[in-house]
Automatic annotation (TrEMBL):
Name of the protein in its database record: CBS domain-containing protein
Pfam family, one: CBS
PROSITE patterns: CBS (PS51371)
Keywords, ordered alphabetically: CBS domain
SMART domains: MgtE_N (SM00924)
Segments for region (Disordered): 409-430
This protein's record includes keyword Ligase: no
Keyword Translocase: no
Domain CBS: from-to ranges: 283-351, 352-410
Superkingdom: Bacteria
């Protein structure tokens, strides 16, 4: 195996996994170690990798030809695509050990695990050899001393933890996309999942909640105090916040809505009034809206705003004042490709498209799907009886509601048939 002889496990998280041809197979999410008797350090038996479609599989350590700080490369052969499930005598290093409260044996000093190093012997056997721990000082203004110790010099690493924080795990997860972090949370035990979710800032937690199945969203929200829950709902897109609140009892809905800022709660309340399965129930109430006398340059600046999703940023809706939904009279749409072809000084009112009828809030999802597919659209305007723009249905929100309700739930997807249980890994000869 061409690799470093010692690697800290947290640094492996997120690394790309390649086959011998250089094709991306997935990304590392954790390291699997098997516990041994006699106080010996656990033996590393493989990695957990996440593949497309959110499937987590086991990569035996013997199948890996290269393991370093940049990537993981696999042998030629076949991979078992059965979904990974931890055995009773195994531990996941990142999930189970990071932030665990332990004791430094020589001094009796309490500490928390920051990272764990795996080291290869001369015969190629990998073990968890060293542990990086930070002493717990009990002082809020002072960080404890960081030490690197042998496995045997730390007690409390195995068995049920007395306590487990979140700081080191969050550092590992910090660069993940919200959808990938949502995957990680689904794999954690419920109590640990709620701890990690609560430690995220409001905006990050809002993004992650939008990627979780409804039952996990409800559980995490219920574990927060109500004021914090309301703050997180304010950071969510109004349509996603409305979908989440719709899963709660009416009384709890009203409590949380009353705790939200009125300007944030108002569009969510409006969305909750629409019938399920209609344009009103799936639309976003915050599309890009601009007046007809705005310039093309101003519109291009708006669609460049980084917080906008690609589907929302794909077009500008042009209306009379006011600009907040429900707006003044809806005039038409300007798609971003047309903006790129027009002079920057041109006015939006002179380049709008209005030859496709907008949706009514009561339009059912099958009809929306048919019309968006017919005209190759990524979003459609929704207007009320007086032609005021009240929102827009985007293709990503439409897909969320057309797919099975449990499509985000990792536990609901089966392992597949026997014929789907292996994948060939190329030889590099092409």
């Amino acid at each position: 195996m061409t690799t470093a002889s010692k690697i800290y496990v947290a640094r492996l998280a997120g690394l790309p996994v390649f086959d011998p041809n250089g094709d991306l197979v997935g990304r590392v999410r954790d390291t699997v170690a098997r516990m041994r008797v006699g106080g010996r350090p656990p033996q590393v038996v493989g990695l957990v990798a996440e593949m497309p479609m959110r499937r987590r599989i086991f990569l035996p350590i013997g199948r890996i030809t290269s393991l370093d700080a940049d990537s993981v490369v696999l042998h030629t052969g076949t991979l078992n695509l059965r979904r990974f499930s931890k055995r009773p005598d195994e531990l996941l290093v990142i999930e189970d050990l990071l932030d665990r409260r332990v004791t430094i044996t020589s001094s009796g000093q309490a500490a928390t695990v920051v990272d764990v190093a795996m080291e290869a012997s001369r015969v190629g056997e990998w073990t968890l050899h060293r542990v990086a721990v930070r002493e717990i000082t009990g002082r809020l203004t002072r960080r404890g001393h960081l030490q690197q110790l042998e496995w045997r010099e730390v007690s409390g690493l195995l068995g049920l933890p007395d306590a487990q924080g979140t700081a080191s795990l969050l550092a590992v997860l910090d660069q993940m996309r919200p959808a990938d972090l949502a995957n990680v949370l689904q794999d954690l035990p419920a109590s640990r999942r709620n701890e990690v979710a609560a430690a995220l800032d409001d905006e990050r937690l809002a993004d992650v909640l939008e990627e979780l199945p409804e039952h996990d969203q409800v559980e995490i929200l219920a574990a927060l105090d109500r004021e914090r829950a309301a703050d997180v709902l304010e950071e969510m897109d109004p349509d996603d916040a409305a979908d989440l609140l719709a899963e709660l009892p009416k009384v709890e809905q009203e409590v949380l809505l009353d705790l939200m800022e009125p300007d944030e709660a108002s569009p969510v309340r409006a969305l909750l009034h629409y019938l399920p399965g209609t344009a009103g129930s799936v639309m976003t109430s915050e599309p890009i809206v601009m007046p007809p006398d705005a310039t093309v340059a101003e519109a291009l600046a708006r669609i460049r705003e980084p917080q906008l999703s690609p589907a929302v940023a794909a077009q500008v809706f042009v209306t009379r004042s006011p600009m907040a939904t429900p707006t003044g009279r809806f005039l038409g749409v300007v798609h971003f490709q047309k903006l790129l072809r027009e002079p920057p000084s041109g006015l939006l009112g002179g380049v709008i498209d209005n030859d496709i009828d907008p949706l009514d809030a009561a339009t059912p999802l099958p009809e929306i799907t048919r019309r968006m597919a017919t005209y190759d659209l990524v979003a459609m305007p929704v207007v009320d009886a007086t032609d005021r723009l009240v929102g827009a249905v985007t293709v990503d929100d439409l897909l969320d509601h057309l797919l099975p309700r449990d499509w985000r739930d990792r536990a609901s997807s089966g392992a597949g048939s026997g014929a789907e249980m292996t994948m060939a890994v190329g030889s590099g000869d092409g």
